[in-house]
Amino acid sequence: MDFDPNEFFDDDQDEPQTQPPHRATWTTLDTDQAHVVLARLRAWMGEVLVHEPTAAELLRPCWYRHPAVVQTLLDVQAAWQRAYHSDLDEAVALSWALEWSQRHLPHLEQRLSRLLAQCTSVRHDPRTVDLPRPHEADVRAYLRWWTSDRDPATEPPQERA
Asked: Biased-composition ranges for Acidic residues (predicted)?
């Protein structure tokens, strides 16, 4: 799949005036904030991520439909901003830049590979996993144990599956 940086720019898009939080948490943004954050993220992807071929190749057209992918992209974007566009002393900035290229970018590539593996350029097919829902009585018993002596011999069993 070829990466088209133009898909990240939308000249007709009106950017709301509501300012998003400094550190965006995708799942808690209101509608206006989400529009602003996603517009900025898409612009950043078209300016920066386009030059990272592995990450660009791993993206799928449905990336924005995966909250975990969006959050990871936002986190990597924030790390990049800190490394390249903050008022840091030169040595600290260099350290952050290396951190971005050697840690954050490979982490992004790994997450994209895993989270978008089932999606193709023509089919959005996210992997879904049901979260385990422990019974409340089991949780209460465990918390009583956890907040007391934590003796492994007295750890309560999980009664219900």
From this structure: 1-15
